[in-house]
Amino acid sequence: MSNGKLINVVLQGALGRMGCEILATLCKQDELNPLAAIDLTAESELLALPNGQSIPLFTKIDDVPETTDVLVDVTNAIGAQKAISNLAPKGINIVIGSSGIPESTYMEAEYLSKKHNVGIVIVPNFALGGVLMTHVARIISKYYDYADLTETHHEKKIDAPSGTSIAIAKAISEGKGGNMNSANTENETIAHTRGGQYSGVNIHSVRLPGRVAHHELVFAGPGETLTIRHDSIDRSGFMPGVVSAIHASVNKPGLTVGLEQILNL
Question: Is the CB of residue 151 less than 8 Å from the CB of residue 161?
């Protein structure tokens, strides 16, 4: 926690569905103060909050107030990279909830967080169940040789596969100590029917209206399967993780990847 000190938070991606949910949550937290917001699509200079107050609304990362303690980014890989490059040197802590973060951004985050003694938290999934699923997948993977992963998100998600599914596949590979086996067919009559592949884990991405985030992992061995499934039914389920990540960025300098590091799994 922040020892009673008010944490000034700026949200990048404030006008999106996730951004609106985060702002509503910030208004309910005694130690978190929504200081300002950023969104490329902003057409106004003020953003009304659910509590009746209004905060400045900017379109550029350069406009972040100097009194900012934490910048939370829920835009995309480009927005996340700009936040890290521009704000870490200014001593501002950063929470990245955007998906599709490339390895180069992780490397930059690690370097800048150490150089400027700031906390940078990159979270593939803010849902507790999603984090636990990844943790359990790492443990189970050593006992099986095959794994298929299906992830389903809303139709406007900009990347595929999801950052969570990639994190799960990485955890499986780490737990296995190598690649899983992939049952490739001799004749794939429709291209990419078997999905993409990460270290032998076949990943299938579904995009449909009415969905939030769903991941189903199936391990298989001789004569049996083991299925793990997590469903994010509403974005409110992500909010405890967002709040925890904000506090962790203030209290833990350096790069932290995943809520599992905060939960000490």
Answer: yes
User: pLDDT tens digits for 205-230?
Assistant: 999 999 999 999 999 999 999 999 99
| Same domain for 182 and 166 | yes
Other CB atoms closer than 10 Å to residue 174's CB: what's the count?
Answer: 13
Query: Considering 28, 82, 142, 153, which one is annotated as catalytic?
Result: 153
pTM of the model: 0.84
- According to the model, what pLDDT value does residue 184 have? 81
The domain total for the chain is 2
Edge-to-edge strand order for the sheet containing 196-198?
196-198, 201-207, 146-153, 213-221, 224-232
* pLDDT at residue 52 greater than cutoff 80: yes
Among 157, 214, 215, 247, the one annotated catalytic = 157
192 in active site = no
153 is catalytic: yes
Whether 45 and 114 share a structural domain: yes
Average pLDDT rounded to a whole number, residues 100-117:
95
- Helix (H) or strand (E) holding 217, with range, is strand 213-221
